[in-house]
Design goal:
The chain is mostly helical and 175 residues long. It has one domain (2-167). The chain has helices at residues 9-15, 19-39, 44-70, 76-101, 105-135, 141-167. The longest helix is centred in the C-terminal third of the chain and has 31 residues, at 105-135. The protein is globular and about 50 Å long. The termini are far apart.
Length: 175
């Protein structure tokens, strides 16, 4: 039942009638555009405009992540997890733009793949939360929610970084 959900989305929408929908729409668009930009990397004519639109959407979603995370959170640990995800998103976006402008395509690619991993946290958060709601004990819901707010994006980012490092993309001076 929605009333039992500790962080009713309606509360956020009521407290932030502009910011919350902007964050949700931009975040939803990012979930579509980030993988699309990656898939188009071999086609610069398509990749560049899609990537620019993606950057704008990620910038908007990332900036609005802070107030959305901190207003009416389930726990402060979860709030800081979501805020950290937003901060990492913005840092990776900035680094990716900086690297591509400097002609460092391998570093740009690494930043964008890490950003995609951080983006995937929105999906993993919901999957793991749904599984916990079905199979987990209700008395541990808030603790799991707080953990999920970090692991949902942290684990994909860590795995992506490990894969990129093994491939040599995160080592010193890749082009």
């Amino acid at each position: 039942m929605v009333d039992d959900f500790p962080e009713a989305l309606a509360v956020k929408a009521e407290l932030m009638p502009v910011l919350f929908p902007v964050h949700m729409i931009a975040g939803g668009l990012a979930l579509v555009l980030v993988p699309l930009a990656i898939l188009l990397h071999r086609h610069p004519v398509w990749h560049r405009p899609v990537a620019r639109l993606t950057a704008l959407v990620v910038l908007i979603a990332g900036l609005t992540a802070f107030p959305v995370a901190l207003v009416a959170p389930v726990t402060m640990v979860s709030a800081f997890g979501f805020a950290a995800q937003g901060a990492l998103w913005l840092v990776l976006l900035g680094l990716g733009i900086r690297h591509i402008r400097a002609g460092r395509t391998a570093r740009h690619r690494a930043c964008m793949l890490l950003m995609a991993a951080a983006t995937s946290g929105a999906v993993f958060f919901r999957i793991w939360l749904a599984l916990f709601a079905i199979y987990g004990p209700a008395r541990h819901y808030e603790a799991f929610y707080a953990l999920d707010a970090w692991l949902a994006w942290g684990l994909p980012v860590a795995i992506t970084a490990l894969v990129l490092n093994r491939a040599g993309d995160l080592r010193a001076n890749p082009r």
